[in-house]
């Protein structure tokens, strides 16, 4: 079963966040977003805007395109 892009995006955020030893709260603070919003994204429950993709990528120190690639 293939993942939706929304699920791939959420899984990538979770993996990278954990590799960088950040909590959801830490990442949310760095992005200027709410922790529950980050949680919803990671679970694939949010349709994220391009602006927020950019904020999250910048906070994680990666290119936005990496968040959309299936690994």
Number of helices: 4
Low-pLDDT windows of residues: none
- The share of residues in extended strands comes to under 5%
| Largest pleated sheet | none
In the CATH hierarchy, the architecture is: Orthogonal Bundle
Mean pLDDT: 95
Shape: globular
User: Considering DSSP H and I runs of 4 or more, what fraction of the residues is helical?
Assistant: 55-70%
The CATH topology name reads 434 Repressor (Amino-terminal Domain)
Class of secondary structure makeup: mainly alpha
Radius of gyration from the alpha-carbon trace, in angstroms: 11 Å
Q: What is the succession of H and E elements?
A: HHHH
**Top CATH class:** Mainly Alpha
Q: How many strand elements?
A: 0
Number of discrete domains? 1
- Going by CATH, the homologous superfamily would be lambda repressor-like DNA-binding domains
How far is the first residue's CA from the last residue's CA? 15 Å
Describe the protein.
The structure is a single chain. The protein is mainly α and 71 residues long. The chain has a single domain (5-64), classed as lambda repressor-like DNA-binding domains (434 Repressor (Amino-terminal Domain), Orthogonal Bundle). Helix content is 59%, strand content 0%. It is built from four helices and no strands. It has helices spanning 5-19, 24-31, 35-42, 50-60. Helix 2 crosses helix 3 (35-42). It is globular.
């Amino acid at each position: 079963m293939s993942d939706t892009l929304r699920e791939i995006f959420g899984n990538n955020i979770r993996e990278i966040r954990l590799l960088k030893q950040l909590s959801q709260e830490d990442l949310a603070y760095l992005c200027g977003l709410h922790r529950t919003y980050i949680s919803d994204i990671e679970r694939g429950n949010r349709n994220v805007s391009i602006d927020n993709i950019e904020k999250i990528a910048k906070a994680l120190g990666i290119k936005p395109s990496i968040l959309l690639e299936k690994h």
